[in-house]
C-alpha cells in the first residue's frame, strides 16, 4: 500500500510552523509513509500578481499532474496550507485524480484561530473537514469541537506534537526557580505589564522591545532547532494575550482547543511547562506531572516559592521521559496507527 504525506511549505523562518510540519514528515517517513514529491512553496504575505499566477499554475496543472502519477492509496495532508485557493484545488485533485483515502493532520483550525465571526469562511473550512476520510485532532477538546460542528468522520487525538530535538538533554538542572519564554515577542503583549512579576523570566525570540525591566531579561533569537542549546532555566512558560491575570484575545482563547507547539519545544528540551489552567493541554500537564498550571501569572512566584528541589526533580524526571517520546515521534506514529486501524 502506498502512503504519502503532503506538506505545502511557506517561506517564513525562525517560527514554529515549518518546524512542526517538517518533524511530522521526518517521523512518519520512519514508518510506511513517504513524502509525495510535491514542491509547492508559498509566502503567505506575497499578494503580488506573480504570486497569484504561481498559485494558479500549482492548482490547475502541477498538483493534479503529480497526484495522477503517484498511484497512492492513502494521503496524509498537513492542514492548513495558508491558501484557500490551493486548498480547494488540492482537495479537488485528490478526489478526482486518485482513489486515495484522505487523512488530515490538523495543525491549526482557522475558524477558531483567525476567522472569528466570519460564517462563510468557517463553513468553507468545516466543509473541507467533512470531505476527509479521517482526521488527527490535537486533543479531546478539539475533537469535541469538531464533532459539535457536524464533522462526522473518524477523528483521533494526537496528544502532543512531537519535536525533533538533537540537543543533549540535561539530566539534572539546579533548581533556581527560573522561567523562560520563547516566541514572537511583538505578539506577547502581556510582557508590557511583566515588571510586576515576582519571578525571573528570560526571553527568546524576534521583535524584542528596546529594553525590558527587571525581572525580564532578553537573551536573543535562534532557529527552532537551536533554541534548546540556550535553555538553562527550570520551566518554559506558555502564555498568550495582553493580561497577566488570564490568557485572552483570539490566541489566548485558542489555547482552550489547541496544542501550542511551544509546549513541545519546552518538553522536548527537558523543561517542565507553566501554562494557563483553562488551556486544552492543562489536564495533560497536571496528570503527567510535567509542569504546573495557573489561572494568573501572579500565582507563579508563589508556586515556585513553595516548590521543593525534590518536587522539581520528580517533575523534571517525568519531563525527561516524555522528551524521549517526543524526540522519537511517539505521538504522531501512535495516532496514525490508530487512524489506520479505524479506517481499515
UniProtKB/TrEMBL annotation:
InterPro entries named among the record's database cross-references: Gtf3_C (IPR058592), Gtf3_N (IPR058591)
Domain Glucosyltransferase 3-like N-terminal: 3-159
SUPFAM superfamilies associated with the record: UDP-Glycosyltransferase/glycogen phosphorylase (SSF53756)
Residues in Glucosyltransferase 3-like C-terminal domain copies: 179-338
Keyword match Transferase: yes
Keywords, alphabetical: Transferase
Protein name in UniProt: Beta-1,6-galactofuranosyltransferase
